[in-house]
Design a protein that fits this description.
alpha/beta, 8-stranded parallel β-sheet, 8 strands
């Protein structure tokens, strides 16, 4: 029997509204659901931050957004500007994608400075930064290395996946993250969390936040279908 209530799980969820075909009406519907379910934040595309902030302004639901999504391949100066723009539009947390190609090239100095540029802009405005590794591309050793770089760059969270890359969060990847930086950073599995059991399993493992696209299904104890 789970020791978590529906309300407790909801308060750990960043509800993802990230599919490219989502319209303004979809955003309105998701915002209403987020308020009704009492989730922690609604995570939107950069172009939707301003509208999300308006929709959620009288609620307890925070506005988070992705940045350089889903490949992390924007130039560092562009990422920093994206962070500045999102903050001006009303974002409260930023989920940036690590430059995956540079990381796979073992250009760790680039990866660290890339994260630092976003962290500098965000932290100056009281905004937390989560670094998405897209861990489906990585070995366990690479996951640990990416965690270390994120910590050295001053980020607040490490996060597994965009939901649009290979694989999804796994208990094995989360364990590496917790063992590597869990005592000094927060950890967020994302991608593939489509049931109550999966969500609670990660919370019991020790994560701090959950990236979920199928929030209603998860909180109502059913299993969602689809790819996110």
């Amino acid at each position: 029997m789970s020791t978590y209530t529906k309300e407790q799980v909801a308060k750990t969820i960043d509800h993802a509204v990230l599919k490219p075909e989502f319209t303004d009406n979809d955003l309105r519907a998701h915002a209403a659901m987020c308020i009704e379910q009492g989730v922690y934040s609604m995570c939107v595309k950069p172009c939707d931050v301003k509208m999300a902030a308006e929709l959620l302004k009288d609620s307890d639901v925070k506005v988070s957004c992705v940045l350089s999504f889903p490949h992390g391949a924007d130039a560092t100066s562009v990422k920093a500007f994206q962070a500045k723009q999102a903050i001006e539009d009303g974002v409260q947390e930023i989920d940036m994608v690590m430059n995956i190609g540079k990381f796979m090239s073992e250009d760790y100095a680039y990866v660290k400075s890339d994260i630092e540029a976003v962290v500098k802009e965000a932290h100056a405005n009281g905004v937390k930064v989560k670094v998405i590794q897209e861990s489906g591309f990585l070995s366990k050793e690479q996951v640990a290395k990416a965690c270390e770089l994120s910590y050295e760059a001053g980020a607040d969270f490490v996060k597994t996946s965009t939901g649009f890359g290979p694989g999804s969060a796994t208990t094995e990847i989360i364990q590496v993250m917790i063992e590597t930086v869990g005592s000094k950073m927060e950890v967020k599995p994302s991608g593939g969390i489509r049931s109550w059991e999966t969500a609670v399993g990660y919370l019991e493992q020790g994560v701090d936040r959950l990236g979920v696209g199928s929030t209603e299904a998860v909180l109502n104890g059913s299993t969602a279908t689809g790819e996110y």
